[in-house]
Amino acid sequence: MSKLLLAGVFKPFGVDDEYGEALCTMELLNNQVTREQGVHSPRSNNPSFGLYLMAENVEVPATVLDFPSWEEFAKEVDKGGYTHVGISFIAPNVLKAKRMAEYVRKNNSETVIMLGGHGAAIPELDEIVDYDELCRGEGVTWLRKYFGEDVDKPIIHPVVASGIRKYVYGAPIISEAGILVSGVGCQNTCRFCATTHKFEKQYTAFLSSGKDVFDACEKTGKALKVTDFAIMDENFGKSPKRARELLAEMEKAGKAYTFSTFSSAETIGKLGVDFFVRMGVKFLWIGIESKANVFEKTVGVDLNALIADLQNHGVTVLASAILFMEHHDKETINEDIDWAIGVESDLLQFMQFGPIPGTRLFKEYLAEGKLIKGKPWPEQHGQSEIWFNHPHFTLDETREITRQAFIKKYHTHGPGVLNMAHTYLKGYLTVKREIEEREKAGMVWDSKELGYVKSDKPVRDEYMRLRLEAMKTSALEFRPILKPAEIYAPNWESAQKARMIREKFLETFGPVPLSEKLLAPFVRILAWNENRKLKKYGVVMRQPFTIRQTYPDRKGTVQKSSEHNRWVRHREHKRPADALSHSETK
């Protein structure tokens, strides 16, 4: 009988060794968003969500091994009795995948080695890693086909936490959130985008309706005791019918769930800020890329006005910009950095323009001879040196310009966590005022118009009052960080900003409760100790704890597909090419 192990690559992460670089950590914010913000930078690790989704949706018994040490991986392979071992990795971690595959082959020669993830697109992969099967597309369909299972049976969404081992100012972050993988892929077809190309420029929905998303919220919420969710979806609002259905389900059930997700600027404009606020979106990642407006998703959009409107309504904005694009020279790159900082988002990612395997950009640069020969894969991660020949920059310059861009954002707008606190406070005050004004004016929500319209008589908006309480909770989660943000502020302006926000919190929410006052000295001690370690060592690297989760044999127990009960991949999008076209067998 088949038995499957799905593993992420082994730790440690974020260290200089034979397998990786210190600047390539298994973190999001500290690695490429709040980088250079020292003690203010939130620290967390995100589980390898795709592994859990795949394991939950095949009938063969499966085990997920996430963030293993080398010893834990070796022990699992030796004692697990697996017929198949799947290794998921990104290109910078290919040498880790190589070592893992070598161990499997040496100690379990009959075991089938499967590779997947973005690293599977490396063109000369078979010269680096010893493997039997390669999945370059969407994994659930591929695995079901491989094991001869019903491809169209309904998707079961796994219960997974959004982040683990979360800290800020050296103190553990108590608030928790669940993860929803509503779909993969993007149809915007940016030539540099790994996600677009991995999924053949198509979108595949795992949660195709608003009811599906709501049910996943209910399931994960009960299991993890959470009401906050991160939605992994390149552009969740690109499926407006699903988003509207989700809001309708929450209104019907009286549930004010909150969400963090991704959206393009043009999609936000089509649905409207009022809709996103009513749906409970509290955090949006928006790709702004470059002031040159070379992307359709930002053409004609007043980004400053849009971002300010979102922030005033309590939506934290993480904007992302690209450095060392083809139009950049010494002058225009500084203009782009200043422009990206000038949109005044709460958080800002700077990522280097990079030809990633599998993308059209990679193929073009390979054909044109622009790729730097012999550049080690572990160095190709977008935060150190670029790995192609740019006519205007040396490799040393790309590394330093990237670092200085983060420093400039930090010194201009202060710590990202402080900006988030301010946004959640502003949003609470704005929405509270607008609810009262609309009720007095007799305005009600029109789900067809996606806006508030005049009604015959004043009506109390019970759902938005429920939403307001959720916004209050989000704001108060940040109150404990306001004093450390002031103490360790990078400059006078940031310290003054922290004091102003702290005073506004006091004015809005009243005195700090005794329980929070008693914890405050401990938070400051932890912040002092964290800052001390950062000054002494330059970095504090916490490794994620290992997650091992088993999924039993489900043959004969899962629902089969039928006309009225099947996996609907694309209700509003074209179905992609057959998954087998993305697979290879050596």
How would you concisely characterize the structure shown here?
With 586 residues, the protein is α/β, with parallel strands linked by helices. It has helices spanning 29-32, 49-56, 70-80, 94-107, 125-128, 139-146, 194-198, 210-224, 240-253, 265-271, 273-279, 303-312, 330-342, 360-368, 395-413, 416-441, 462-476, 482-487, 492-509, 514-537; strands spanning 4-8, 43-45, 62-66, 84-88, 112-116, 133-135, 164-168, 171-172, 178-181, 183-184, 204-205, 228-232, 258-262, 281-289, 316-323, 347-352, 443-446, 451-454, 547-551, 583-585.
| Beta-strand content estimate | 15-25%
Q: In the CATH hierarchy, what is the superfamily of the largest domain?
A: tm_1862 like domain
CATH class membership of the largest domain: Alpha Beta
Low-confidence stretches at least 5 residues in length (pLDDT < 50)?
A: 575-585
Portion of residues in helices?
40-55%
In total, how many domains does the architecture comprise?
3
Mean pLDDT: 94
Biggest sheet, open or closed, and with what strands and sense? 7 strands, mixed
What's the CATH topology name of the largest domain?
pyruvate-formate lyase- activating enzyme
Q: Figure out the total of helices.
A: 20
What topology, given as strand order, has the largest sheet?
19-3-1-4-5-6-20
N/C terminus separation = 22 Å
Number of strands: 20
- What is the molecular shape? globular
Q: Over the alpha carbons, how many angstroms does the gyration radius reach?
A: 24 Å
